[in-house]
Amino acid sequence: MRIRELLKIENSRYPARDIMRWLWQAWRGNRLQAVINASLGLLGVGVSLAQVWAVQHAIDVASHSIEGSLYRAVALMGGLILCDFVIHIASIWVRNILGIRAQNRMQQRMLDRILRSEWHGKEQFHSGDVINRLEGDVNNVVVFLTETIPNTLSVLAMFLGAFFYLFFMDSLLAVTIIAMLPVFILVSKIYIKKMRHLTRNVRDSDSKVQSVLQETVQNRMLIKTLESDSLMVGRLENTQSELRHNVVRRTKFSVLSNLILNFGFALGYLIAFLWSAMRMYNNTLSFGGMTAFLQLVAKIQGPARSLTKLVPAFVGVFTAAERLMELEENPLEEQGDPIEMEGPCGVRLDGVSYAYDNEERSVLSNLTFDFYPGSCTAVLGETGAGKTTLIRMMLALIRPSAGQTSIYNNDDSRTMSPRLRCNFVYVPQGNTILSGTIRENLRLGRVEATEEDMNDALRQACADFVFSLPRGIDTVCSESGGGLSEGQAQRIAIARALLRRGSIMLFDEATSALDPDTERQLLKNILEKHDKTVIFITHRPAVVEYCDQTLRVERN
Fold this sequence. Notes:
The protein is an alpha/beta fold. Helices cover about 60% and strands about 10% of the residues. The protein contains 16 helices and eleven strands. Helix 4 runs antiparallel to helix 5, helix 5 (about 125-170) packs antiparallel against helix 7 and helix 9 runs antiparallel to helix 10 (about 285-325). The radius of gyration is 34 Å and the shape is elongated. Mean pLDDT is about 80; it is low at about 1-10.
């Protein structure tokens, strides 16, 4: 307990058993690369120990301690060196080619898990922090599972092989070296706990730096117009200062630990050299034997050094695994095949209430309303009254804290769930165009949409301007629809939504950037067939004129 207090070691959020179980699951998809790396490592160990024997043999032949051909002995050394080169090249190839594939697979799995999890109005992690984890922490886990663990097998094999070789030559020294292992294990246990705490601080600080950078770049125009350049640079400096402080603390601890460790290794080598020199002086060891003796000591110390590097690797991967496990804490939405209901469908609210976490007041309270099939409804209300919350509830992004939301048609009625989301066409407020071509943005609405489908959707959304662009539907947009006006981006977003086959259309202030004439034409195009249920969240009088009914949401 005193040691923990002295080093200021905090308890981990997850037990080691849970982290190991998570790493085991993550390793299952990377076994091929791990097995190949382990095989190459073990083969390298065999070649390395063979080189020790080959050098000893060549020196003993050259010094006439044994009979044999010096040319053959040197040729054998050359052949083993070539084998070592081949193994090294193969290891690089496996690490670079299969390694990036393993990292990509894990990033895809983590992103898929995040996208399928429940959505919350206030996300727990900053987007920059999430990206930092998906890049840095995923890389740490993949490298550990596919390289560090397999390499550890070869390190242990080298240690054991060198030990038994040395034991055959001098059992007393070999046993003395092994007797030091319990001390090493005890010191490593203390080192791991302290280094794990320091590494976690560094990784969290690095995430904060990336979050500030990302948010500043994304809101560059806002910062320039507010003339807050120096303020944001100062904020970055504060987070970077925290990162530097944590890096310095970790580096000091690491340097001190390595200094003590390297002193021990150096002292051990000097003792081994003196031991072998005394044996050679007393004619109990040949010159070639002494060379092999020192090589074996180095090959025992080499794996021991590698094992000390394994300790920080374990610390790093435990920290990375913890940070990735935190991303998976959010429960999954209801999974299963989409349930498509025959349209037109309606949405019924029955005594619905909702309050966001840590808020005392309810955004919605005991709301009952029927968006009947084929109707057109305008949802009105002041800012903060709960209009957007209502949309999220209908899309099953959130669940009512009381009451029930259901979707129905003439034959069926179902409680709202994520599997019923396919029945909705949704256009959110604001600019929602992603970087890429207009075609790629449209295909988000329906991936199998044909050229004719996309052209029809663009015309219906009054986005005919796309056809006059130099590259038409293949025009490239930068981040957040850069290169398009707000009105153009909004119409493309509407066209994207229209490609979906849902029979209930939700528009959240989706025409706010359109001029009156374009807005009227768009509403006419959408409503002329009367085959869908349309719900507008709006403040625009022109939209209300086209609606059959109105729902006014009051602020609680």
